[in-house]
Write a structure and sequence with these properties.
62% helix, SH3 type barrels, 4 helices
């Protein structure tokens, strides 16, 4: 390499000290935009493709999915706030007029921005993992409705709703939430229809 080329590389190396903070700020802007877009995309996917509600899940699955979604929301929000902090800094009370004071502040701010970006990316990755975990729990868990056969039985005296246990020539047996197991004589049964809920 020529002397002129070496001199130019040395100048660029000296200028890098002064341009590092603006470069980190631009990088943080990209992370902030990406985190915001990712959070919005995940919200849309959960709303469009997720279950209508979690009430049909067993209690353990409902609690797990809800906890994972809340933790993911907290992590994605924290990551977004860290990216905003890295991109825009914090309001400073003093204006640095001295060269050495400005240099110290710039070095400290570079360290803070680098740390905030690392935490923002970690929060983003963990938030996405938790959302995927919540979706797996919600979509992969069978509901309690699929294991039971709820029916609405119309008799001479009224309507009874519950889980179908037995049908034979003499009786129709169902289990209700309030009365427990009920045996209805077959002669009194007018109709038996499936029921989504009682």
């Amino acid at each position: 390499m020529s002397t002129r080329s070496d001199r130019r590389w040395a100048e660029l190396a000296r200028e890098l000290e002064f341009t590092r903070l603006p470069e980190l700020r631009r990088q943080a802007e990209g992370w902030r935009t990406g985190l915001t877009g990712l959070t919005a995309l995940l919200a849309v996917l959960v709303l469009l493709k997720g279950r209508d509600d979690l009430t049909g899940l067993p209690a353990w699955a409902r609690g797990t999915a809800t906890g994972l979604l809340v933790a993911a929301f907290v992590l994605l929000t924290t990551g977004s706030l860290l990216a905003v902090r890295a991109a825009h800094g914090t309001p400073e009370r003093e204006i640095l007029l001295g060269g050495q004071a400005l240099r110290r502040w710039t070095e400290q701010e570079v360290a803070r921005v680098t740390r905030a970006l690392a935490w923002a990316s970690l929060c983003c990755v963990l938030g996405v993992i938790l959302v995927v975990g919540a979706l797996v729990v919600a979509w992969g868990t069978t509901t309690s409705d699929s294991a039971t056969h709820r029916v609405r039985v119309r008799t001479n005296t009224g309507v009874v709703c519950g889980e179908l246990i037995l049908v034979d020539p003499q009786q129709v047996a169902i289990r209700t939430e309030t009365a427990g197991k009920i045996s209805l004589p077959r002669a009194t049964v007018q109709s038996v229809q499936p029921a989504k809920a009682c």
